Amino acid sequence: MHAGQKLRRRVNTALMRAADEAGVRLELSEVENWLLDRACELEDRREQLQARLDDVLARRASTATVISLSAEVRRVVTTTADLLARVDFPRVDIHGLVPAIEKAP
């Protein structure tokens, strides 16, 4: 399962839990689903970039390459978090939905 699928599963689980606690049916709007879809796509991209960064670090590639990939991973994580922040999650704790940025050694 890819990172985007995992994110979607975590969001759906959190929404179902919040709906059960509130005793109501909770749904995301069309726009919110679009935002979540983009966040999931970015999570897949982050996963790919992280794998590339891990490979570059294992090969002890140039510092410039490591810095560039690290910056791109941070941008993707930040953008994903920004997209998720625009979704109105009713009573859902979104902390932990986006993995922390892994720091290079």
Task: Outline the structure in words.
The longest helix is centred in the middle third of the chain and has 29 residues, at 30-58. The two termini are 27 Å apart. Mean pLDDT is 83; it is low at 98-105. By secondary structure, the chain is an all-alpha fold. The chain is built from three helices and no strands. The protein has helices at residues 3-22, 30-58, 63-85. Helices cover 69% and strands 0% of the residues.
Coarse structural class: mainly alpha
Shape: elongated
Give the distance, in angstroms, between the N- and C-terminal Cα atoms: 27 Å
Number of helices: 3
Specify the helix fraction band: 55-70%
Largest sheet: none
Number of strands: 0
Percent strand: under 5%
List the secondary-structure elements in sequence, H or E: HHH
**Structural Rg:** 16 Å
Give unreliable regions as ranges: 98-105
Average predicted local confidence, pLDDT: 83
